[in-house]
């Protein structure tokens, strides 16, 4: 079991190196990989999906410049519903854990909605997994459009394919 944890953290670290566009220090990427892995194990979310969100939200930077109201690598809204302060969220450990918890909850709500009985001419047996993820990502971002969800899903698929892994990884 310990070997699989080390392997996932190492795999995530290599993905972060390959997808890093903001020259984040390698020590920071290493810490981020460990936190993404831990948050994925705790919430049951794919840590690669969490990495895709971290890239879209904060470009892997622990305390990215704020352009809105979110804080930290996962751009979580601070001081709401019992969430930590912005200063606390600008720590990989806290920010990733909070972002993963929020995404896990929004995904559960979207999955429940997809399984709910539908009536009328749009009746269906539920949403496919991709639609459920789009629902969760859109809710996580608070976006009115699905553009954010499409970008994160595109990055997630590229990470899974190792699309940029062939690119020279900086050492």
Description of the molecule:
The chain is 61% helix and 0% strand. It is mainly α and 171 residues long. α1 (2-19) packs across α2 and α5 packs across α6.
Q: Largest sheet at a glance?
A: none
Shape: globular
* Number of E-type strands: 0
Distance between the termini: 28 Å
| Contiguous runs where pLDDT drops below 50 for at least 5 residues | 119-128, 166-171
N-to-C order of helices and strands: HHHHHHH
What is the rounded Rg? 16 Å
Structural class: mainly alpha
Strand content: under 5%
Nearest-integer average pLDDT: 84
Helix content: 55-70%
- Number of distinct helices: 7
List the helices and strands and how they pair.
Layout: H1 2-19, H2 26-43, H3 47-58, H4 86-89, H5 92-115, H6 129-141, H7 147-161
Helix pairs in contact: 1-2, 1-3, 2-3, 2-5, 3-7, 5-6, 6-7
In short:
It contains seven helices and no strands. It is mainly alpha-helical.
Q: What keyword list fits this structure?
A:
171 residues; mainly alpha; 7 helices; globular; disordered C terminus
């Amino acid at each position: 079991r310990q070997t699989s944890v080390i392997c996932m953290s190492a795999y995530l670290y290599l993905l972060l190196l390959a997808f890093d566009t903001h020259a984040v220090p390698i020590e920071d990427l290493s810490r981020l990989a460990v936190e993404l892995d831990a948050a994925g194990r705790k919430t049951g979310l794919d840590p690669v999906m969490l990495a895709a969100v971290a890239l879209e939200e904060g470009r892997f930077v622990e305390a990215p410049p704020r352009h809105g109201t979110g804080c930290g690598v996962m751009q979580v809204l601070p001081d709401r519903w019992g969430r930590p302060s912005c200063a606390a969220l600008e720590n990989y450990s806290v920010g990733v854990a909070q972002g993963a918890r929020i995404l896990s909850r929004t995904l559960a709500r979207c999955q429940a909605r997809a399984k709910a009985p539908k009536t009328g001419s749009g009746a269906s047996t539920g949403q496919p997994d991709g639609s459920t993820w789009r629902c969760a990502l859109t809710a996580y971002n608070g976006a009115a459009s699905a553009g954010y969800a499409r970008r994160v899903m595109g990055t997630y698929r590229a990470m899974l394919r190792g699309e940029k892994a062939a690119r020279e990884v900086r050492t």
